[in-house]
Amino acid sequence: MPLSLWLSLAAVCAMGAMSPGPSLAMVLRHTLGGGRVPGVVAGLSHALGVGFYALLTVWGLGALIVRQPMLFNAISWVGAAYLAWLGIRALRAGRAGPLEAVGVPTTRRQAARDGVLVALGNPKLILFFIALLSQFVTPGMSLMAQVLIVLTAMLIDAGWYVLVALGLSHSRVLPWLQAHAHWINRATGVLLLALAARVISGPLIV
């Protein structure tokens, strides 16, 4: 996979992870309630769920592109429309819905359980991966390239939430996240719209 293409994938995965939502609230809740270690455990277990969905998506799209190329092309266009819709929603979010997180007593086991369940229980996550990864899967893609895509999604997700859990040891981190949630939404929206426009103008992979 060319470096420029990988950077596009990494950027979208990063913005997806950073977007305020139930996953971020879950990590914050366990960190505030149990300390740094439960927060890190929640972030790492969430990344496992993300990796599972990414793996299923890559395998499924790889088989589809070989057997039904026209259907794959249709999915790519639908995926581009979905990415554009997500981008518009992120831009329109503005300052609405500031991030709130309340700590509750928790353990490492509870944090691990919740991390996986929040990831696997979010149906929008699999839709996001289908929309996103359909732009990066190619006919005859090597196993190494597939592993790279899955690891990129996992490591970026894990890295962000671990940083959040570690950063909460500093009192200014949570207020910063709350104050800048709208800017994260806006950056995510611009990136998703740009990717959707790139797909419409031509294939990402040439």
From TrEMBL:
Molecular function, one GO term: amino acid transmembrane transporter activity
Transmembrane segments: 41-66, 116-137, 143-166, 187-205
InterPro entries for the chain: LeuE-type (IPR001123)
Primary location recorded for the protein, binned into one broad class: membrane
Signal peptide: 1-25
Compartment(s) of residence: Cell membrane
Entry annotated with the keyword Transmembrane: yes
Keyword annotations of the record: Cell membrane, Membrane, Signal, Transmembrane, Transmembrane helix
One Pfam family it belongs to: LysE
Membrane protein topology class: Multi-pass membrane protein
Gene Ontology CC terms, in alphabetical order: plasma membrane
PANTHER family to which the protein is assigned, alphabetical: AMINO ACID EFFLUX PERMEASE RHTB FAMILY (PTHR30086:SF16), ARGININE EXPORTER PROTEIN ARGO (PTHR30086)
Name the record gives this protein: LysE family transporter
